[in-house]
Design a protein that fits this description.
The chain has 17 helices and two strands. By secondary structure, the chain is mainly α. Strands 1-2 form a two-stranded antiparallel ribbon. Helix 11 runs antiparallel to helix 12.
Length: about 450
């Protein structure tokens, strides 16, 4: 039965992956055709708007399930701990330790490759005026506002706006309160929330069937407007950035292998659909529900994934860290501004701290760069040089964020002894049944 289920689940994953890849390729082809045949820029934007409508519908369906999924998984996990409530604090410390280390590695690699390839040197483009406006909102990017923003005024409002950190805070309080109550009603509520997790995951399965269509539309919209010419113009920047991302992937996977061993390859296979979805839509939110589902299939207990993954979405943005390093140094190179090693390190460390306050901020990575580089005498208007290709860069950094968060969650689960493979009665309904993993049975 277990072998049959494993084969069925793998076939299901491969089917979704193939469909997303097909949607990706078709989107590129259709987008290029529209770009070549459209009469003018206005028509290009109109056509792209119709494609974007399909992507917007999919993203709305994804956002529809994120708040209840985060709430249910966190509350269910904490309530199940009972008297072991100290586990949550330990998980938070371990998670943040991994997140900070990964951020430093990402920034370091970004700095290394940006200096090695110097993608901004000799840029054959007219530089923007020093007083040009980027239209990025950076005024609220400070520690005071960030700390105040973590705590919700209303749990309902936090869920309505998908403020993951605020939902996390409310869910932790709710879960702890529920775990301390011993009444029959409290147990009934806990049981209902446990079942709610399964219901939301089933809804996730339904929503994910639209993913290939959304991927097709998202890629088609971008290529319709941008075409391939922009990729040629900024080829050196894009190529060096993606090469650096590949090296970062290798480092993250290697670090995961040190903790997880060979099963890290199984994890990568399971995360593949979520990563492709994040790449194609340039949205981490789009991949979140699928990641919860796939991490459960890998054997990560919901009490861990429900807590660590939302935390990672706010604090573990490995791809974004690398992008910020590339963008800042690209601007310095484009303007011919020399920065010594210590200036670069100081600037990147400042970005790492600043970036922890951008949860929910639109175009967060660009905002962090725009807010930080003026402190080091670099013109924020230099971002105008790369804003035209930001969508293509965003695809890579978003996929990297998903990979980093998936590995981080599995690693914390292993450290907590909460990594137990699951079996199921069929390919659609995965139940939590402990079986031997990596030569022994992990405690639930």
């Amino acid at each position: 039965m277990a072998a049959h289920t494993a084969v069925a689940t793998e076939n299901k994953i491969n089917k979704l992956t193939r469909a997303i890849i097909i949607g990706l390729v078709l989107g590129i082809g259709v987008g290029y055709a529209c770009n070549m045949l459209a009469a003018d820029q206005a028509m290009l934007k109109e056509i792209a708007g119709y494609f974007s409508l399909l992507t917007d519908i999919f993203m709305k369906m994804i956002k529809m399930i994120i708040a209840p999924l985060v709430f249910a998984t966190i509350v269910s996990g904490i309530a199940s701990l009972g008297s072991e409530s100290g586990v949550v604090g330990r998980m938070a410390v371990r998670s943040m330790g991994w997140f900070v280390t990964a951020s430093l590695v990402s920034l370091g690699l970004g700095m290394l490759f940006a200096n090695l390839f110097s993608p901004g040197s000799g840029l054959a483009q007219a530089l923007p005026a020093a007083d040009a406006q980027t239209n990025l909102q950076t005024t609220s990017l400070n520690l005071k506002d960030f700390i105040g923003h973590i705590f919700p005024t209303s749990a309902v409002q936090a869920m309505a706006t998908n403020e993951i950190l605020q939902i996390l805070v409310f869910s932790v309080f709710f879960g702890f309160a529920l775990s301390q109550l011993r009444s029959t009603h409290a147990k009934t509520i806990a049981t209902c929330i446990d079942e709610l997790v399964h219901v939301i995951l089933k809804i996730t399965d339904y929503v994910m069937r639209f993913a290939p269509i959304a991927v097709f539309a998202a890629i088609a919209a971008v290529v319709t407007v941008q075409g391939f010419g922009v990729l040629i113009t900024y080829g050196k920047f894009i190529a060096s950035f993606y090469l650096a991302l590949v090296v970062l992937w290798a480092v993250l996977i290697g670090a995961g292998a040190l903790v997880l061993g060979r099963p890290v390859l199984d994890l990568l296979k399971l995360l593949r659909p979520a990563m492709l979805l994040a790449f194609s839509t340039a949205s981490s939110e789009a991949a979140y529900p699928k990641m919860i589902e796939q991490l459960k299939t890998f054997g990560v207990q919901p009490r861990v994934s429900g807590f660590v993954l939302p935390l990672g979405y706010s604090f573990n943005l490995d791809g974004s860290m690398m992008y910020q390093a590339f963008a800042a140094l690209f601007i310095a190179q484009a303007y011919g501004i020399e920065m010594d090693l210590w200036q670069q390190i100081t600037m990147l460390l400042t970005m790492m701290i600043t970036s922890k306050g951008v949860a929910g901020v639109p175009r967060a990575s660009l905002v962090v760069v725009a807010a930080t580089i003026p402190m080091f005498n670099l013109p924020a208007a230099g971002l105008l040089l790369i804003m035209g290709i930001d969508q293509f860069l965003d695809m890579g950094r978003t996929m990297t964020n998903v990979l980093g968060n998936g590995i981080a969650t599995a690693v914390v689960a292993k450290w907590e002894g909460q990594l137990t493979p699951t079996t199921a009665q069929d390919e659609d309904d995965l139940l939590e049944t402990p079986v031997p993993y990596a030569g022994k049975t992990m405690s639930a």
